[in-house]
Amino acid sequence: SVKRSKERSLEEAAQLLRQIPEAQLRGLEEEHLLLLVRLLLSLQLEMVSISTACRKVDQVSSTDSFFTTFNYFSIILACMYLEDSVVGREVWRESFMPMLQRVSESLPAVLQEESQRDGLICYITAKVCLQAFQLLPNEVAPLVWEENHSKEAVQRILQALIDILRQVSFLSKDTRLLAGTAVAMLINTASESTAAGAAAWNLLQASHPQPCQLTVGVLQVTCDPVGKDRVDRLAVSRGLLTCCRPHILLSPSHDTTQACLLLEGLFPLVYALCEEKQDCHYFAFEVLTMWLKRVKECVTDLWRMTGSRLLPDDSKLLQQLTHIIWTNAESPVEGVPEFASSAFTLLLNLYALDSEQFCDTSKTFYFTLLERLLKLPWEAKAKYHRLCALLPHVGAELVLDQYTEVSRHLLNCLSTNHLSPCGSEFYKCLIQQQRRELPVSLTEVDLAGRWANSWQPLLLEALTSEVTLLQTNSSTHLLPCTLQVFPSAVHHLLASLNPQKPGHLHAWACVLSSYRAVSGCSPWALHGSSTFKTLQLALGSADDKVRLAALNLLCCSPKTRDVPSAEEITILKEFIPQNLNCESSPFRQHLQAAVRRFLVRIRDGCLAHIRGKRCSLYHIGFVEWLGELPYSFLSPGHSYQRKKTALLLLFAVLETCTDTWSPDKKKGQPPANIGLLIDCARQRGQWDFFCRTKQLLLISCLEDSTNEIRELSAGLLLRFFPPSFPADIAEVLETRSMQLLRSPRVQEAQMGALMMKMLLQKNLCVVRVLLKELEEHHLTAKADMMLSARTKPIHGVLCALQRCLLEAADDIYTTLDHSLMTKLLDLLENISLLLLAVLHGDCEAHAPPSFCDMGNAISSLISQSGGGQTDEEECVLLSEEHSLVLTCCWVSLKETGILLGSLVEKVLKESKKHSECLLTKRDLMRASDVFKNILLKCRHWGAVEGCGLGFTKFCTSLLNSSDSDLKDIPAQMLKDGLQVVQCPGSTSVTRRAAGLPMLILCVLSSEEISKARPLLALSMQTLLDTARRPLDENWDQTLDLPQVCAVHTLQALVRGAGLGAAVLQFAPAVAVLSLTLLRSPCWAMRNAALQLYSSLCSRMLGQRSSSVEAGPTQHSMSPAAFFFHYPTLQAVLLCELRGAAQHLHRPTAGAKLHLQPSLYPILTLLAHLQPGVQDSPETLLDFLPPLLQLSASPIYSVRVMASKALVAMTPPSGYFDLLLKLTSQLPGPQESCNHNRLHGQLLQMKALLDRALCSDSVLSDDLREVVNRIHSSMWLGTTAQCCPLVRAAYLSVAGSLRRYSCETFLLQLSDRLMHDLHAPQQACCCRSCSLYEQDEANVFAEPSVMSAHMLPYLLQMAEKSSQSSALAQTLTAWAEKNAAQVLDNLTDCEQLLPAETLSPSWLALLVDPRFHCALRGLFARAVFLLHLLKTSACTQHHCDPLSMQMRLQTVCTLLTQNGVHFTPALTATVSAEEARL
C-alpha cells in the first residue's frame, strides 16, 4: 500500500542516516544542513496523517543540530510539532520564552487583521496556545502563578484569548470554543488548588455579559463584551469541564466554603444553556454530558464534602436533570437527542452509585421512570433508548412483566424505518439481560428453550411477514443478535419452518445465513442432503427477496479462506445466467456483492493452496468462466438490465482477481501475493482479462443509450485496463468523440465528452484541442445560431472540458496556465452573454424574459434564419428548430455554470500547493457576473438548477478562503440579490421566483457552519420584512410582486438541505408570517404562503413515520416537545383555533359560510404531531375545547382534520373522559340535531377509539359505558338517520367496538342493515368501464438472447427428426429454402471483417445493435443448418458440411478477435459441431 511504501522508505532513510557520524553531520556547511532540515520538515508535513510514519520521521530528525540552525517556526509547523513530535516539543521547552514571545505577538496581530481573524490562522494560533499550556505546564506555571518580570507575554496571550471569547460576529464558534479551552488549560497549570479555584470562579463570573476584570494568578486582563450570543459562556463551561483537574472543580467560592464550582458554579450555567433556544444547542448538551461525566468522576469527593446523598429522590438537582433530559429527547436539532440519551444513561449510573453508597435499595427513581416510559406511545423513539439504559438497573423480568405490549411494539418498530434501529437495540438489550439473569447451570439447549418461550413467536412472525420492511429488519437486526446470545436457538427456528409455506422459505435462508455468519460453521450439515435441495428451491423462487437470501447463504462466509465446494460452484453457475435480466436495482447490487464475496473466498483459498504448492484448477476455471460471461451480454441489442448486471459482475471479477491497485481505497485492495495466483492461471491459458477483444467491447459500451452503462464501462477501462490505448484505437476514438461532441443531442454529446475524458487519462493532451473547438462553436453561434444549434451546439465541448479538467486531471496546474485560464474565462463569459441574448430577443436587457418572451425570441430567430413553418396556421407543438435552439441554450448555460463553479473550486483548492493562483480577484468577479446573469436572467429551471450546483461550489470556495476580498464577492452578490427581491416586479408572473431564490440559497448554504452565520440572519430578516409589507393600493396581479418573491425565497431557504436546522431559529416568525399571508387578497401571495407553510412544517416536525399503522401523516415529535422548542407558536395557534370555534357559535354562523384560511393548515400541523404522550403540560389542554367545537364545522375536511388533531393533543389518560363526553351528546331518534356537529363528533369518537383501543384493552367501566351508549344509538346507522355521512361514521365507530359488543346488538344491527339494503331505493345503475385499454407488458426484445436460448432446442429437434417423417420433411424444406441465404450471409461477414487496425466504419458497426442482432441470428441459423447437413443425407447436396464448418469457425474466430463476443452457449455449440465431423 501507499502507507506501507512510505514507511518502508522512511525506515531505509533512517538506517542510512544512522550510519553517518554525528560529528560529520555537525560539520556540514550551513547551506547543506538547512537543505536537510527543509527535507525533514516537508516529510513531517507529508506524513502528519500517518502516525507511524510521523514517528519514524521524528526518529530520523532526532539530532539536535538540525533544530539549532532552524530558528523560526511558522504557526502551523509550531502546532504540528507540539502535537506530534517529541523533538519539536524539546525545542519548544529549550526556547520557551522566545517562542512564547513570538506567539504573544502573533495572536493579537492576527486578531487585528480582518482577513485572518476568522480563518484557519486564528484557530491554529489559539490551538498553539492550548498545546503550550497543556504540554509544557512546568514552563508556563511560574509565569502565571508567581510574581515575575516575564509575565507580559503570557498576559498578552490571555488578553487575546479573552478577546476571542467575547467576539460575536467575526469569529467562528470553533475558534471561540478553543479559546475557552485554552484559558481553562492555563488555569489548570496551577499546582495550588486555592489559587486555581479562585481563577476558575473568576473566569465563570467573567463569562457574563457585564464588563469586568479577570484575574488568573498574577495576570489580570479586561473583559469587554462585544455582543450577546452566549457562546462565551458555553466556551468557558466547556473548557473548565474539559481541562480542570478534580481539585479545581471542587473548589469553593471565595464568599462561602460550602459551594463548589462543579455543582453551584457550573451546573446553573449548563442548565441555563440547555434551556435556551439557540443555534448552539448541540454544544450545550455536549457540555451537559461532560458535566455528568465529571460529577461521576468526582462523586466520592462530593459525598465527603457534603456528607449526604448527591441525588436523593426529592432533590431539585435530580428534578432539573430529569426535566432537561426528558424535554430534549425529541429535539429537532441534530445530535441533541443522542446527547440527551447519553446524559440519561450517565444520570442512571450516577443515581446507582449514589444509592449504593448510602445503602438505599428502594430504587424509587427507577420505578418512577419505568412507569413513565411505559406510558409513552410506541412511536416515541426516545422510549427505547431510555428503556435500554434503565434495563440493567431494574432487570428484564420486571420490564417484561409490566411491558405486556412489548412484542407488538417491537413489531411496529421493525415496520418503521426510523424506529427499527432503536427497537432492535432494545430487543438485543432485553435478551442479553435475560441471559445474564438465567441460572449459569443451564445448558445452551436449555437456555435456547427459555428464549424460545419468550421470543420465538415474535421472531417467526417478523421473519415470515408479508411486510417487506419488517421481514428485512428482523433478518438483519434480530436474527444475528439472537444467535450470538443464544446459539442453540437456530434449532428451534429451523424446526418451526416449513419451506412449502409462504414466507417460510425466505426465513429459512435468513436463519441459515445468520447462523453461518455468527458461528462460522458450514450450514450444509444442519439438515443433511435436504439442505442443498431447499437451497435450490429458494434460488429458483419467483420472489427476489427469497433468491437474494438464498444467494447470500450460498456465497457469504465469515472466513475468507473458506474455499467453495464443487456443489456451491455448480449451483452458482446455474443461478447467475438466469438472473442477469432482473429489473430490480437492489437485486443487482446485492448480486454483485454476494458474487464478490464468493470470489474473495476462491481467491484467498487458492492463495493458501498455492503456498502449499497446490492450485485448484476447478476454482480457477470458475473465475475464467465468470470473467468471460459478462462480455457475451455487452453488445448493443441487449437490455439495460442485462448489461448493467454483466458490468457489475465484471467489476467484481476484475476488482477481486487482478493486481490492480486503487490508491483511493483503504480496504479491499488485492493481496500482495495475488501475482502468484494470476501466474498460475495464465500458465494454463486462462484469466486473460485485458485482451483487445474485451477492450473493444467495453469501448462500444461508451455509446450506450444509458448513462449508467457508459460510466461503468469507462470506469472499467480506466481502472483495470492498460494506461494507454493502441494507436489505431486512440485515433478512431478521437475522431468519433469529436463527431459526438458536435451533435445537438445532449446524450450523444455526453458520450463524446466521456470519450474525451478517456483519451486525456490515457495520456493524450486534449485540453487545448477542446478550447479551440469551443472557440469555433462560439464563433459559429455568433454568426448563425441555427447552424450552431444543429452542428456545433457548445454544450458538448463544455461537458468535455468539465470531465477533462475536473475529473481526469489530478493537478489542474499541470493542465492549465494563465493564458489558457484567461481564454477559457473569456469564452465562458461571452457564451453566456450570447445565449442569454438569444433568449431575451428584443426584451429589455435588465428584465428577465418570460417564457412567452423566450418562445417569441426563438421563433423570431428561426424566421430570420429562413426556417420554421411556412403555413399561417399556428402550431401548438414546438418545431424541431425551436427545440434545437432552446436545448442548445439551456443545456449550454447549465454546463457553463457547472464547469465554472467546479473549476474555481479546484483551482482555489490546489492553489495552496503552488506559489500563485491561476485566478485573480478580477477573474473571480467576472465569474460571479456570469453566475448572476444566468440565475437572474434565465427562467428555464434546468439552466437555473444546473447553474446552482456550480454556484454553490463557487461560493463555498470563496467564503472558506482566508482572503477577505474574496469573501466579499458572494456576500455582495447576496446583497444584490436581496435588493432585487425588494424591487418592484418586472413584466410577468414568475413561478416560484425562478433563479433568484437559488442565488440566495446557494450563498447561504455556503456560509461556514461553525460561525454565527450573519448572512443568513441578514437574509431572513430582509425577506421577512419584505414579505410583511402591505400591498400597494394599485397592485397588479400580472406583475411580479416583491412580497411574493420574498415568500418564495423563504420557502427555498426552508426547504434547502444545505441550511438544515439553521433556519429553525426563525421558524416561529416564518410560521406566523405564512398563516397571516393566507388572508391576502392576492392569489399568488396565498399560494406562496401555503407552500412556505407546508415546507416549514416538514422542517419543524422532523422525521416522518413510514409504518402502515402510524399512517401517512405521523411524525415523531409530540405536542409537548413541539411547543417546548417553539413556545411562541402555542399562543398564536390557540388564538386562531378559538377564533374559528367562536364564530361557529354566533347566531348568524349558520346562515353564511365563513372561511378562515389559516384554520385547516393549523389543524393539519396539530394532526401531524405524535399522539399518545401522557405527561403533556396542562397548558396544552387549552386546545381541546376549540377542537371539540370544530366538530360542528360546515366544511367536511375541517371536521376530519379536527378529529385527528384532537387525538394528537389529548393525553392517553383523557381519552375515555372525552369519549364519555362525546357519547353523552348523541341525540335520540326524536331529537333535532346539527348534522355537521353529529358527524364531526362521530369522527372524533372513531379517532379516539382507534387510538385508545390499539392494544388488547380490558372492558373497563368507562369503556362499558361508551359501548352501551353507542348501542343505544343504533338508529344513527339506519335509514332513520337521513344523512349518509352520519350513518357511515356511526357504523365505523360501531366497527371499532365490535369485539366489545354483545351478539344481540350485532345481530340487530346486521338485520337492520340488511333490511335497509333490500329496501327499494332510487339509484342509477352504472356500468364500470375504462376509457383506456390495459397496456401490454413492457418487454425488451433481445433477439440475440432468444437465439442462444432457442438453439439447443432446435438441435434436439434435429436429432429426433428421424423419428418423424413430417418433421424431417419440414426441416429439409427449411434447409432448402435458407441454405443459400445463410451461405451468402457468411460470405458478407467474410468481406466485412476489418483490417489489422481499427477503423471508424468497424467501430460504427460495433455500436450498432442491428448488426449484433443480425449476426447472432445468422450464427444460430448457420449452426442449425450445419447440424442438419450432418444428420440428414438428403440436405447434403446443398453444400459441403466440412467446408461450411471451416468457414463458420474462421468467421467466428475473427469476429471474436475484433470486438464481437458470442454467448458461451453459441461458442460451445460451434465447437461441438466441429467435434462431430
TrEMBL record:
Domain tRNA (32-2'-O)-methyltransferase regulator THADA-like TPR repeats region: residue ranges: 451-661
Alphabetized UniProt keyword annotations: tRNA processing
BP terms from Gene Ontology: tRNA methylation
Entry's transmembrane regions: none
Domain DUF2428: 820-1084
Pfam families, A to Z: DUF2428, TPR_Trm732, TPR_Trm732_C
GO cellular component terms listed in the entry, alphabetical order: cytosol
Family: Belongs to the THADA family.
Free-text function comment from the UniProt entry: Together with methyltransferase FTSJ1, methylates the 2'-O-ribose of nucleotides at position 32 of the anticodon loop of substrate tRNAs.
PANTHER family: DUF2428 DOMAIN-CONTAINING PROTEIN, THADA/DEATH RECEPTOR INTERACTING PROTEIN
The protein, known as: Si:ch211-225b11.4
Lineage: Eukaryota, Metazoa, Chordata, Craniata, Vertebrata
